[in-house]
Design goal:
The chain is about 20% helix and about 40% strand. The protein is an alpha+beta fold and about 160 residues long. It folds into two domains: about 80 residues, no CATH class; about 70 residues.
Length: about 160
């Protein structure tokens, strides 16, 4: 089974890991599949243009101003590696980083959010597998080397 899908407009294969960020009224960016972003851009330009007040698009970046105030202004752009890392990491300012090496224990350290984001982004660029657990932790399995990482939220006192 292939992980790529065909883009309707070009017929070219589109990798399954491509994403765009979608921001509504300057709010929190949301990570969405590129296919959904392109579908929204296409709909605003063609079928849904009666609902659009203003529309601009260039190289995957789009700004759509809807007439309906509830839908507001939507901005779409290709997601960067940092956007993907932030979506994987979630919230939390402090994290516990465990470095697992074969034959050794699991040394750990407390890291700030920026360090955790940089670690994830660095490994995403090299093609590492990054998983988010249901408990809020993040597991990183690099493609080279034999050290894997586990990031877990720093416990907070209630």
């Amino acid at each position: 089974m292939s992980t790529a899908s065909q883009t309707p407009s070009t017929g070219k294969a589109q990798p399954a890991d491509r994403f765009h960020t979608r921001t509504v009224n300057g709010g929190i960016p949301q990570l969405i599949p590129t296919r959904d972003a392109l579908a929204e851009i296409n709909h605003a330009m063609m079928g849904g243009k009666r609902a659009v007040r203003e529309m601009s698009e260039a190289r995957g970046h789009a700004r759509i101003v809807y007439k309906d105030r509830d839908r507001g202004t939507v901005e779409l752009r290709p997601a960067t590696t940092e956007d993907k890392a932030a979506a994987i990491l979630g919230t939390g300012e402090k994290w516990i980083r465990h470095d697992f090496q074969p034959g050794q224990g699991a040394p750990y350290m407390t890291v700030r959010r920026e360090s955790a984001l940089n670690l994830i982004a660095e490994h995403l660029r090299t093609g590492a597998k990054v998983y988010r657990s249901t408990e809020g932790g993040v597991k990183i399995e690099p493609t080279t080397g034999n050290t894997s990482y586990w990031l877990q939220p720093f416990p907070t006192r209630a």
